[in-house]
Amino acid sequence: MLRAEGLYHSFGRVRALDDVSFTVNPGQTLAVFGPNGAGKTTLLKVLAGLIQPQRGHAHVDGGRRAIGWIGHQPQLYGQLTVNENLRFWASLYDTRPASDLLARLGLEEHAQRPVRALSRGLVQRVAIARALVHDPRVLLLDEPFTGLDRIAAEALSRLLSQHAAGGRATVLVTHNVEEGTELATDVAFMRNGRFVHFAPRSGRDASEIAEEYRHAVA
Amino acid sequence: MPLPDSLRHAWYVARKDLLVEFRSRTAILAAAAFVVLVLVVFNFGRDPTAVSNVDLAPSILWVTFTFAAMLALNRAFQLELENQAIDGLLLAPIGRSSIYLGKLIANLVFVATIEIIGVPLLALFFNIRILPIIGPLTGVIALATVGFVAVGTLFSAMTVRTRFAELLLPVLLLPFMIPPLIWAVLATSRLMADRPLSEIGGWLKMLAAYDIVFIGVAILLFPATVNE
């Protein structure tokens, strides 16, 4: 479903990606942990096709149409309402927002409000709705829990679990091990553009993975 | 991607841009105020006995439109960077040409709105009889506007990620605007002087050729300006 082979990309002398290879199959959720500057965001941008790698290649079954993306920024228009934003993004995929999408994220009462009038947490929820608006087969998530309160974080976790249960793939990058572990079927640690650890989660809990992470990236 | 799909996606992008502008109204109000101010200043600042209205009005009209259009062109891609919406556009399964054409359509509507405000004001302040020449004048304005907005939309995408985008855009764009502006001023002055339409035929053809060439070039170059 998603395959990366020998990805290499540098910005000047900084190697953002250095020979990164992996596969994510349907139903799998790969959590990539790494400190700031490890190359996590570059990895997601290469997987999404927003950056062309200097070596290697990434392949997603279904191409761009199959990808849902949550980046550092919400990718929304502040002057437009929540509904208008979602309808616009859905139109680019020749579809309409699912009728229950707003309800699943607790956004029904905010549908007619301009995005610029929403709190940061609500904006992040709308950004999640935007990423899911075309029912993507592959989700690429860059620090998706940032700015979410506990209830919204739980709603997002439920959505991601449903997404994986539906035979879809997810790649989630974060520097917060506790956040990402719960959903992960596979775990990778990234440092200086390289995967220094990549293995199935295999029942390890967040504290065990956090301990391994500290050793791996120290 | 089939042409109907490309045009449909371009329309979605344009409609979104126009809705954003309709909600904020900042750029359109600023541009309209600029047009009114320039025309008022020229109206009271000139010596009517030195140069006739018909000789002066075409140049003032096009200088006013040119700088008012800069406001539209500067904001065209700025709004895509505010929340990094450009990433979503680039990731969507639409052609890069659809993004360019959508921006072009929205910019044309914006500049046309400014021109609809500016032409009657010019007629009023400079005592020009517009109604008898409204058809051919609309043709000249449309052809010239399409040309410089087509180039401006491309340069707007090129400069938006730079530190001095608002300064860089006019510096890059103005040299490319010189040919259509000269042809537009010449054609407009002939029209306002009640010269026969046959006298402006050549300039209209050159404006049309400029539009075709630069829209084609912009569509080809646009992907390189937005890819990281």
How would you describe this structure to a colleague?
The complex is a heterodimer of chains A (218) and B (228). Chain A is an alpha/beta fold and 218 residues long. Chain A is built from 7 helices and 9 strands. Chain A has a 6-stranded mixed beta sheet with strand order 5-6-7-3-8-9, sandwiched between helices. Chain A has a 3-stranded antiparallel beta sheet with strand order 2-1-4, covered by helices on one side. In chain A, α5 links the parallel β6 (138-142) and β7. The model of chain A has no long low-confidence stretch (mean pLDDT 91). By secondary structure, chain B is mostly helical. Chain B contains 9 helices and no strands. Chain B has helices spanning 3-24, 26-45, 53-76, 78-81, 85-91, 96-126, 134-159, 165-192, 201-226. Chain B is globular and about 60 Å long. Chain B starts with a helix and ends with a helix. The mean pLDDT of chain B is 92. Chain A binds chain B through residues 45, 48-52, 63-65, 67, 69, 71-80, 84, 88-89, 91-93, 114, 130, and chain B through 9, 12, 16, 19-20, 23-24, 79, 82-85, 87-94, 227-228.
Tell me the series of helices and strands of chain B, N- to C-terminal. Answer: HHHHHHHHH
| Shape type of chain A | globular
The main sheet of chain A comes to: 6 strands, mixed
Terminal Cα span of chain A: 32 Å
Q: What is the CA-based Rg of chain B, rounded?
A: 18 Å
> Biggest interface: chains and residue counts?
A-B, 29 and 22 residues
The geometry of chain B reads as globular
Low-confidence stretches of chain B: none
Count the E strands of chain B. 0
| Helical content of chain B (DSSP H or I, runs of 4+) | over 70%
> Helix/strand-derived class of chain A?
alpha/beta
How many helices of chain B?
Answer: 9
Counted by DSSP, the helix tally of chain A is: 7
Q: What's the assembly state of these chains?
A: heterodimer
Q: How many angstroms does the end-to-end distance of chain B come to?
A: 22 Å
The portion of residues assigned to helices of chain A is 25-40%
Strand content of chain A: 25-35%
Please give the radius of gyration of chain A in angstroms: 17 Å
The largest pleated sheet of chain B is described as: none
Q: Could you report the average pLDDT of chain A, rounded to the nearest whole number?
A: 91
Strand order, main sheet of chain A: write it out.
5-6-7-3-8-9
